[in-house]
Design a protein that fits this description.
With 280 residues, the chain is an alpha+beta fold. 49% of the residues lie in helices and 14% in strands. The strands form three sheets. A five-stranded mixed beta sheet has the order 1-2-5-4-3.
Length: 280
Amino acid sequence: MTSTAYKKLAIPYFKEVFIAIDNVMKEVGAPYYLVGVNAIALELLKKGIKPGRGTKDIDFAVMVSTIKEYENIIDAMVDKGFNKVKAPWTLYHQEFNVAIDILPFGEIEENDTISFNERYSDLHVLGFKEILENATNINIDEITVEVPPIPGMVILKLVAWSDRPEERDNDLSDIIRIIKHYFDYEWDTIIDNHFDLFAEEPIDRLKIASRVLGRQAKKYMDKSSRLKQRILETLEANLGDVERSEIAKEWTRRGNLEEKNSNLEYSFQLLSEFEKGLRE
């Protein structure tokens, strides 16, 4: 099935990047996935929800068994006109003016990290394997690419932020954007399977969305004790004190919530609803 929805992302040469990586991955026989903010944007576009923040960076995850297999993929991408930069998983194409990250996971993992020795710090890929087992499809013209399910993307964003909170504020703004639109995105499922959340008055769409996201993300978190521990510890650290909750503070700063709800206490309540859903 052909789809041109990706053009709404307004990223020059977006299709060309996919043609290059799709050809390489078919040649080496490695499954690959679109992850990150562009995956979120394309998934929301399925329901007519316009993209939020834009980025020329395109993130992929690739399932490989060895460092050698991964390096062969990188070399093949170089042959397609991409150049290596500082981080060993990042490539840049001068003509396309785009940077891509190719993040390896699968049998190559050891304790949920990929070691690049002295070239760079270890890359953490906790959660990829568990979440990408349930990937969904998106079409880029005639190319079909798999993306994580939306609740899984929230888990991956929390993991990424918890790894480097000083560098990953955008992960938190991506999560609050998902919460803002998730009630409409999952309307049918919410009505069919989560009607109990309408018992409280007045009905709060964002709180319901947060709770449902937690309930749906739980199945991915429960697949891995390491993943579950990381997520719950991250949330516990941000739910002890409203004034010290870095997640709630960032959601308040960048969430663009309705004016009446644009305060720290409300952001904290949304985070609490998500955590409740994970524990149900």
